[in-house]
Design a protein that fits this description.
The complex is a heterodimer. By secondary structure, chain A is mainly α. Chain A has 20 helices and 2 strands. Chain A folds into 2 domains: 317 residues; 97 residues, Orthogonal Bundle (Cytochrome Bc1 Complex, Chain D, domain 2). The C terminus of chain A is likely disordered. The chains are: A mainly alpha, B mainly alpha.
Chain lengths: 452, 521
């Protein structure tokens, strides 16, 4: 099944989804789960100790969280879906089929989440005194519902890397409770509480003036951050033990890219440095050092966010040639379709190409074959530009490489087309690299109009 | 195995169920979308009247109205999840086609709503602040917010008109003609509905006194009149004769509208008998349901033929690819077992198709290459030079760069080659000695014939380093004497290196010694 093609110029599809998704993970994990859990804890402290400072902190912080989660958080979350709908409709459409029921239930959970947090926020003043306990229960209820939504979504995310028996039995249960489900869930919760504690420290040291309260709260959030850091690290180790080696071996490249792949030690140094930096920050917070928290909380948050970005990047990258392992390649071609297209051709079966091609010239054929086979990951002239990738190679060399992408580069899907189509695309890429052709609309590979 | 191999066309539920769920979920979503839009428009309008029309009362009302924005918009977004899921599952092909045809607009929704939400949340706290800042914030928040329903209406309108898909591409991905007018009216119809539902909501929940209510009632009445007008125009633009059920629902909705209008007028002037919640809510919901049912029935009718045709096509396609299912799964299983963490695997997978399993340069693809793959088994080089070739490739040949394998992997490849072929070492002794005289002759030949490309020191010249492919650097790269002799005698096909077979054999062996003598490390 085929749709008109659109590619995000310069950024490319993967980076567009990646940027949006990482921002969403930071907010949904860090604020919507982690920070609200801190708010509820703070409210509880305020209630237990009759402390106005804890109570006020919790209420104000919740206001800040709600504004961000219901705008940036919600829209980047829906955004992942909107972006994939436009850039990989066949992929997201198929995922929605496999996970129809979890996703439908997720709708109810999301709605409950929003309703509860709104009630929690708007009843803060009114449900005081006698009704404080009820209000606290509401907060706990919200965190529980938010955890449910993490429970549901982790199944889908894990599936895309470790589908287990799904390619054979196509059953929801093997897809959902896949091998990386549990470790990833724990990892995500660790990240959520880690970020939540760091966000809380940030809000605390920049908005509160009460010295004693600041020191006390700092130690509390520092403790949470330290424990979460430990959980996150253990879960990360656990997670990587269940990822198949064939995928896992590309983790380092996923982060370092071609630019830095020849300095693998740097990867370990940076990661170790990041962990040590977070550890030191947590210890300083435990030691109630408000000044160092003020100075270091923003860098610490940045480090934690980079860890999130790194994890998501690795997870999305190493599944490599597959969008849905065992079923669909990253370029939205089904595994079974490749041998058919190699035998009988991709272009004759391309509805949009045949309906809109101005004429059957090699350039528009090459462009369309590139769009269908490669443009999910490669741009022309932007990030991961195909021009850089084939630059300097001979035309026959490009032809040969196209036929062996999946063996040569283990995270690339195979080319799906006849020998002639492979030749056509190779010539297109060769001429693209030597500058003798320039694509008209790089975001639209479907040749425009018969009339033009 | 399901006959529809493409998961995309499988149904998790029977169609009527999906359509029913879609209707319910969409109605809920739309209700809050209308509240959100209406809240924003009314708050903005009362804010203007408050600041620029000198009415403190209007400003107070604006603040109360804007207070509802946070809840409305949060619910509107989250309630949108189910309709988006259901329409993508029920009407996959037409819906995604609409999305992809107008992808840039569709993607813009994310940014537009983030800006609108943040600015409006800020504005809700600052409405009564400085007039200029309120005005600016209001405009920055309202414009992107109002653009979003336009984009959703655009995608839906396009997806419901499959006949227009190709013309849209022909026009450079733009709307034109009757579809443009259809879109515009439909968009305005949504904004009109937002005014009606927003005004109704705030009539009951934000108005402070009867004067506020009278003002909101005027919005309500004007909005309802506008809706009737737009509805009539839209009906006139329906491309096909509406089905019986469509007309029935539409008639019910229209009757509801007239009844509602009569109710509004009957309460218009009187302050003692305001609108009653018990009459307004059922009536408004009845109109909403009837009109949305009309909408969905029209939509279903437009979508069904496309979906049916494509399902048929997919069945044929499914039977074709079905022949390859088993084979593909086996290949997938095999691939999961191939781990690129050792030189042997990497060579077998990523190198052998050109260089051959025996590393003799005779891989299955060699026949397709004008510059034949190197006989790797004969290469005698240094580890850094090999790493350089692997990370830069050889320009002008098929040899790509392999930076997509990290240093450890490339090192393991080097170790593998070295273990098997003694790649990392000097070229070794010639099979038979070369006399001093011949060697001197060979040196003379090298200076005369080889230096223009290879340079006297064997590193190549500035010019030759730009050749595609460039000559190798003899100080770090050599071949076994036998292989060097072959290349000197026959040349390297596809490159500027010619064969020197007409030189006496002894001189050619002498050249081998000269060239190999340039190796430094």
């Amino acid at each position: 099944m085929e749709f008109p093609i659109f590619q995000v110029p310069y950024l490319g599809n993967g980076m567009t989804i990646g940027l949006d998704a990482v921002l969403h993970v930071i907010i949904s994990h860090g604020l919507a789960i982690g920070a609200v859990a801190m708010v509820v804890s703070a409210e509880y402290m305020g209630h237990r100790r009759s402390s106005v400072a804890w109570e006020g902190f919790a209420r104000d912080f919740l206001g800040f969280i709600i504004v961000l989660t219901t705008s940036v958080g919600a829209m980047t979350g829906v955004g992942i879906w909107l972006i994939t709908s436009a850039l990989a409709p066949r992929g997201i459409g198929s995922l929605l089929r496999v996970f129809f029921w979890p996703w439908f239930i997720e709708w109810g959970v999301f709605t409950a989440e929003v309703i509860i947090v709104l009630i929690y926020y708007y009843t803060w003043q009114r449900w005081a005194g006698e009704r404080k306990k009820q209000h606290l229960l509401l907060g706990v209820g919200y965190v529980a519902v938010a955890l449910c939504s993490a429970l549901l979504i982790t199944g889908i995310l894990g599936f895309m890397l470790t589908p287990d028996g799904w390619p054979w039995d196509k059953s929801l249960w093997s897809a959902f409770f896949n091998p990386s489900y549990l470790p990833q869930l724990v990892l995500r919760l660790g990240i959520a509480f880690m970020l939540g504690a760091l966000f809380s420290i940030g809000y605390l040291v920049f908005t509160r003036r009460d010295r004693d309260f600041r020191r006390e709260a700092l130690a509390f959030f520092g403790k949470v951050a330290l424990v979460s850091l430990a959980v996150t690290l253990l879960a990360a180790v656990w997670y990587f033990t269940v990822v198949p080696s064939a995928f896992k071996t590309h983790s380092l490249y996923a982060v370092m890219t071609s630019r830095l792949s020849q300095q693998p030690d740097l990867f370990w140094q940076i990661n170790l440095g990041g962990v040590v930096a977070l550890l030191i920050f947590c210890l300083l917070a435990l030691g109630r050092s408000v000044i160092s928290a003020r100075l270091l909380v923003v860098p610490a948050l940045v480090v934690a966010m980079l860890f999130v970005a790194q994890f998501e990047r690795i997870r999305e990258f190493i599944r490599g040639p597959y969008l849905m392992p065992g079923y669909m390649y990253a370029n939205q071609v089904l595994l079974e379709e490749t041998p058919l297209f190699i035998k009988e051709g991709m272009l004759p079966r391309s509805y949009w190409y045949n309906a809109t091609a101005a004429k059957a010239d090699p350039v528009s054929q090459g462009a369309y074959l590139f769009a269908q086979n490669c443009a999910g990951c490669h741009t022309i002239g932007g990030i991961n530009s195909i021009v850089d990738r084939v630059q300097g190679r001979s035309a026959d060399g490009i032809y040969v490489i196209i036929g062996h992408t999946q063996e040569m580069v283990p995270f690339m899907p195979p080319f799906s087309g006849t020998d002639q189509e492979r030749r056509t695309m190779a010539d297109f890429l060769f001429r693209l690299a030597d500058g003798s052709i320039k694509p008209g609309v790089p975001s639209r590979f479907t040749p425009l109009s018969k009339g033009r | 195995m399901n006959i529809l191999f493409d998961i995309l066309l499988q149904r998790p539920l029977p169609d009527p169920w999906l359509q029913g769920l879609l209707f319910v979920a969409f109605t809920l979503h739309l209700l809050f979308v209308l509240f959100t839009l209406g809240t924003a428009m009314l708050a903005f309008s009362y804010m203007l009247r408050g600041h620029w029309g000198g009415s403190p009362r209007a400003l107070r009302l604006a603040v109360r109205i804007a207070g509802a924005f946070m809840s409305h918009k949060s619910l509107a977004v989250v309630l949108g999840v189910a309709p988006l899921l259901l329409i993508q599952v029920t009407y996959t092909i037409p819906f995604f086609t609409g999305v992809t045809l107008f992808a840039p607009y569709w993607l813009a929704v994310i940014g537009l709503l983030i800006v609108a939400f943040l600015v409006f949340d800020l504005l809700a706290h600052r409405l009564d602040g400085h007039p200029i800042s309120s005005l600016l914030l209001g405009i920055i928040g309202l414009l992107p917010l109002l653009a979003v329903p336009g984009i959703f209406v655009l995608v839906l309108s396009v997806s419901e008109h499959p006949g227009n898909w190709l013309p849209i591409i022909d026009q450079g991905y733009r709307l034109h003609g009757p579809l443009l007018i259809h879109w515009l009216l439909r968009y305005l119809h949504v904004l009109g509905a937002a005014l009606v539902f927003g005004a109704a909501f705030h009539y009951f929940f934000a108005a402070g006194d009867n004067e506020d209510r009278r003002s909101l009632l005027r919005w309500l009445t004007a909005g309802t009149l506008l809706q009737i007008l737009l509805g009539i125009m839209l009906y006139g633009l329906l491309p096909i004769r509406p089905a019986m059920m469509v007309n029935l629902c539409l008639f019910a909705g229209a009757a509801g509208c007239v009844l509602f209008l009569w109710y509004l007028f009957s309460r218009g002037g009187s302050t003692d008998a305001p609108l009653s919640l018990h009459t307004t809510v059922p009536l408004a919901l009845f109109i909403l349901v009837a009109m949305l049912l009309t909408r969905q029935l029209i939509q279903d009718r437009a979508y069904l033929p496309v979906t049916a045709a494509l399902t048929e096509k997919s069945k044929i396609h499914g039977r074709e690819i079905g022949a390859f299912t088993q084979e593909s799964l086996e290949r997938y299983q095999t691939k999961l077992g191939v781990v690129y963490d050792n030189g042997e695997t990497i060579y077998a997978q990523a190198c052998a198709f050109c260089h051959g399993e025996l590393a003799d340069g005779a891989g299955p693809e060699a026949k397709n290459l004008a510059v034949p793959p190197e006989n790797v088994a004969a290469v005698r080089t240094t580890a850094p030079y090999l790493h350089q070739i692997l990370t830069r490739g050889v320009p002008g040949s098929a040899m790509p760069y392999f930076t997509f394998l990290d240093r450890h992997k490339l090192d393991s490849l080097t170790d593998y080659l070295n273990g098997r072929y003694q790649t990392i070492c000097k070229p070794g002794a010639l099979p038979k000695a070369v006399s001093v005289e011949t060697l001197n002759q060979a040196k003379e030949v090298y200076t005369q014939t080889c230096t223009p490309c290879h340079g006297q020191d064997g590193r190549g010249t500035e010019q030759s380093r730009g050749y595609r492919p460039p000559p190798p650097d003899f100080t770090s790269y050599s071949l076994t004497p036998q292989r060097s002799f072959e290349v000197i005698s026959n040349g390297y096909p596809g490159t500027l290196m010619p064969g020197f077979g007409d030189l006496p054999e002894a001189v050619r062996w002498g050249l081998v010694q000269v060239v190999n003598g340039k190796r430094t490390p």
